[in-house]
Amino acid sequence: MTDPLALDPVLPPSERSRLAHNDEALSHGERYAAFEAHVTGGGKVEAGDWMPDEYRTGVLRFVEMHANSELMGVLPEREWILRAPTLRRKLALTAKVQDEVGHAQLLYRVAEDLGKPREHMLDDLLAGKTKFHNVFHYPTRTWGDVGIIAWLVDAAAIVAQQALRDSSYAPYARTMRKICWEESVHIMHGRDVVLTLVNGTPAQSELAQEALDRWWGPLMQMHGPRTPRDKDRDLHWRIKAKSSEELRQEFLSIYVPRLREIGLRIPDPDLRRDEATGVWSYAEPDWDELRTVVTNHGPMSQERLAFRRLNRDQSAWVRHAVLGVPIAA
Amino acid sequence: MTDEAPESASVDGPPATVRQEPWEVFRQEKEGDPMTHGGSVMAPDAELAMHYARELYGRRQESSRLWVVRRADIGVLEDPDLLQPPLDRSFKKPGGYVMRDKLADARARTGATKKVASDR
Amino acid sequence: MTTTRLGLAAAFPPDTLHALEGLLGAMADDELVLGYWDSEWTGIAPMLEEDVAMSSLAQDEIGHARALYALLGELRDEDPDHLAYDRDVADLRHARLLDHPRTDWAFSIARRWLYDEADAVRLEALAGSAFSPLAELVGKIRREEVYHRLHATAWLRRLADADGEPRERLLAAWRTLLPDAATVFTPLDGEQRLVAAGVIAATNGELETRWRQDIGGTCRELGLAVPGPAADPMHGRTTHGEAVAWLWGEATMVRRLDPEATW
User: Fold this and answer.
1) Are B42 and C150 in contact (CB < 8 Å)?
2) pTM to 2 decimal places
3) To the nearest whole angstrom, how far is the Cα of B74 from the nearest Cα of chain C?
């Protein structure tokens, strides 16, 4: 007969299966060490758990930039909703932009549950204190842009988002799974638009090629400069799992063949894949351009922020009436 | 729950006058499935919470049922003393009944060499 | 399916068929123009959750328009996108209620409510249509409209019951919309034939009366004027303003690059 006490004796408080970092009896240093061990060992964090300030700030900054990007990312595509050339395309594009708004909602909710109110995040975005991704600072000039963005910008985003599905911050990880599922439809919509163009008239084909020529640079900058793994705190805390370069390589591996097989030229003569290692080499992205753009000096940065500010001010009365949000002085 | 008091007002939560709160949305994928947690929406009351739940968790015809509940009304149990108590409870699980050796002894006595078809 | 629908339509004399095409075109244009205005809220609505909701409503309207153009397209053997887009703005036949731009949130809500309640009366009169493909489509549209009317009413009440700016904006919108509210019921050419053939259960005049009765209670309860007859009723579907001219320019901009191409 098994001895119930021998199998799993009652342990003293500090050794029980309670997450040590949540134990208020421990010192800050002990909690920090326990948290770090937990997270670097693959453990998950929920909104109500104790977190070191560095982790909470790091997650909030990461999620907030993501939320801001979804919100600002609406604007380049929004104007084409009215201009879509068929009823089905209009429905598809409206639904896609709607999804981006929905993603902003999901992500702002995650950030709100970390303690920062939505109105404060919008204040900081519009004041230029927080950032949004580079690709959303550029103009959209033609229907070709609509297809290229929906296909390739969303593809580059999904490569990053798939890697976030196992983030240590569980509410964010769960949101990423929902977002990835929804984004996969956008990529199909974008690819369908581009394929229809390249299979169409010479003028239509040219729309797609010309758009790709303009968007390739920003796309290559999108995942960011290479940073050494050991200096990347977001990697350390497992907020994200892959480095910028890993994401860029993954994007190139999947999408360069798909672009080439339909006859689109990629405007980088240095782009080539090492057959032995599978590693892509490419013309060095313009990191100065990236820095300029994400600090809100891109071609459309100020105009889009101003547009957001205007619409927010014009609809402030609704939030005030329905939610009691104070109208700014 | 942070390791030090927040420095700025932005982590104190929304001002008391803002009349919105989180509502948790549970969804059922298809008939007969369990209700699973989908996410949350911010809304000032139950009526708009229902609209927003439908939009965020049902606009693609992806759910056959939604439950919408104020987060404040949900009770949370996560105390490991209650959910993961330390003493042996193996008698409550299939893994607590290992019969391999006893079966081997019994079969040796009867001379049975093959497993009976109904053995798992 | 096309043959069956054409076969069904062949049961109607040419004048009745012509009137039916006019009805479908008017309904499709109503849904199309409203859908376009309300799709403008995508990305810039007052609250994120509400943004997603309004976008769904706009997509539903476009979806209804698409189905109606498809039905009309089968009767006329024409492509639905061609029917919808390859026209001048002067050829649009939407009600003047829908001619106004989206303006502000109160205006959009007020206009949606007035339109959805009018559309509900029209759809009810088509639910048992002798033209069975239309009856079938209307059945589906009515199910989607349940959500639309819930949303519109919820917001109309919130704005009407809130003192100060929300109610003032609603009243301002109401004043602008009232002369055009009844244009949804602008008499259509040959509508008597449609009633006689059982395609629609009542004339536009009768439907307008029913609509006014239906919404009277809510209007009085919320302190809003009950809409009277349309100003300039004979041109309720044929006069269009600058806002719609701008909208149509946007809507056809890409397509006009090459209307014959596949997009």
Assistant:
1) no
2) 0.89
3) 22
